[in-house]
Amino acid sequence: MEITEVKVFPAKEMGSRLKAYATVVFDNCFIIRDLKVIEGDKGLFVSMPSRRRKDGTFRDIVHPLNSETRQMMEDAIVEEYNKVAALETAE
């Protein structure tokens, strides 16, 4: 499976750890929306779309089944985020 498109939409909340939302397309035929780029203690990471359960906890709606796929997605999204952030800074 190949990532064929990544779009990043910077978040507008100032001072928030949430930096952007992302959309990823696989093989030009499957899309995942509402991934989050978050500033963690060790740098940027990607949070999968999730839903709040009745008990107040959150559960991912979609997620990679192995660490290689998660890393591939995170690398592509963070790379695109860095490009978008650099363009916004230059403006």
How many structural domains are formed by the residues?
A: 1
User: What is the count of β-strands?
Assistant: 6
What class, by secondary structure content? alpha+beta
Name of the CATH homologous superfamily: Stage V sporulation protein G
Distance between the termini: 35 Å
Q: Radius of gyration in whole Å, from Cα?
A: 14 Å
CATH class: Alpha Beta
Shape: globular
Q: What profile does the largest beta sheet have? A: 4 strands, antiparallel
| Elements, N to C (H/E) | EEEEEEH
Give the integer mean of the pLDDT values: 92
Helical percentage: 25-40%
What amount of the residues lies in strands?
A: 35-45%
Low-confidence stretches: none
Can you offer a commentary on this structure?
The structure is a single chain. This protein has 91 residues and is an alpha+beta fold. The protein has one domain: Stage V sporulation protein G (Arylsulfatase, C-terminal domain, 2-Layer Sandwich), CATH 3.30.1120. It contains 1 helix and 6 strands; from the N terminus they run ββββββα. It has one helix at residues 67-90, and strands at 3-10, 18-26, 30-40, 43-47, 50-52, 58-60. It is globular, with a radius of gyration of 14 Å. 12% of the residues are buried.
Detail the topology: elements first, then pairings:
Layout: E1 3-10, E2 18-26, E3 30-40, E4 43-47, E5 50-52, E6 58-60, H1 67-90
Antiparallel strand pairs: 1-2, 2-3, 3-4, 5-6
Please provide a brief summary of the model.
The protein is α+β, with helices and mostly antiparallel strands and 91 residues long.
